[in-house]
From TrEMBL:
Name used for this protein in its record: OmpA family protein
Species this chain originates from: Nocardiopsis tropica
Presence of the UniProt keyword Membrane in the record: yes
Keyword list, A-Z: Cell outer membrane, Membrane
Entry's localization field: Cell outer membrane
Length: 163
């Protein structure tokens, strides 16, 4: 990983590379990824959208979809970012680790996403913002479910919206 490189001009050049084995060049948008170990949040960001990863262990008690008192400050910061963005739609996705089974994990991950949605609806002051909520259970892990640290990272709610 490297620090963000801002405002680097990309121009066409008259120079050519003589190698028939090379594929056509492709410009891939940079994505900035950051993690805050202290409050177990993460963030990915590119030119178009922001995705904020909120650790379920910070927002909720074990096996609960009731938001903790500490979650209010974190969600207030997320709401401010949504207010400052151009997004009309905010996606809220809940995830679980692979302990338990889908009959527990799917509803719990959705209930947690709905709890985050309910609070964000109250905190977001900009008009015209709609929320789409989905629970994914243990699908799409972002870390190794074989370790406790990995399972903690996989228990999350992700809030994604256009910049």
């Amino acid at each position: 990983m490297t620090p963000p490189i801002m405002d680097v001009p990309i121009t066409q050049s008259s120079e050519t590379v003589e190698n028939s084995g090379l594929e056509e060049p492709e410009i891939i948008p940079l994505t900035m990824i950051s993690d805050n170990i202290e409050d177990q949040t993460g963030r990915t960001e590119n030119n178009d959208e922001v995705s904020i990863i909120l650790a379920s262990d910070v927002l909720f008690e074990t096996n609960s979809a009731d938001l903790s008192a500490d979650s209010q400050e974190i969600l207030a910061q997320v709401a401010t970012e949504i207010d400052d963005a151009s997004a009309g739609v905010v996606n809220i996705d809940g995830y679980a680790d692979n302990t338990g089974n889908d009959s527990v994990n799917l509803p719990l991950s959705r209930e947690r996403a709905e709890a985050v949605e309910g609070t964000l609806q109250e905190l977001v002051s900009r008009e015209g913002v709609t929320f789409e909520v989905e629970g994914h259970g243990s699908a799409d892990p972002i870390a190794d479910n074989e370790t406790e640290e990995g399972r903690e990272r996989n228990r999350r709610v992700t809030v994604t919206f256009a910049k």
